[in-house]
Amino acid sequence: MQEGIEFATLTDIIYKTWADKTTKEYKKFKGLKKENLRDNMTNKELVLNMLAELSTKEISAVSNPESFPEHENVARRGGNIAKEARLKLEAETGKKVVSPLNAKGIHSIENKKDNK
Questions:
Q1: pLDDT tens for each residue of 29-87
Q2: How far apart are CA 64 and CA 88, in angstroms?
Q3: Structural domain boundaries of the chain?
Q4: Three-state DSSP class for residue 115
Q5: pTM, whole model, 2 decimals?
Q6: CA distance 7 to 14
Q7: Which are the contacts of 109, defined by CB distance < 8 A and separation ≥ 6?
Q8: How many CB atoms lie within 10 A of CB 37?
Q9: Closest to 17 in 3D by CA, of 53, 42, 43
């Protein structure tokens, strides 16, 4: 496999694990076409995504995966840490973390708050 394809596959695994959506599904859910997904995440989504990425990096550093299947396993484990945090936050607040809001919707809400 090519390095770019492998990176995209691992990113999809991380997203699918913590957010229950692949990158493509997540972008469609947010109504995005060519826009950057991360640029269109809410603060909660971004924090959990960063937790998933950081956890994956840290697990990788201590487990030193050598094969691509081992890297896939590490990506799932890192994503699962953020999934557990997402589920706990949702249980505590009764609100979904993964949101259809995109940058336009986020800025619109922020502007309404500023004008009050």
A1: 999 999 999 999 999 999 999 999 999 999 999 999 999 999 999 999 999 999 999 99
A2: 29
A3: 3-114
A4: coil
A5: 0.86
A6: 11
A7: 101
A8: 19
A9: 53
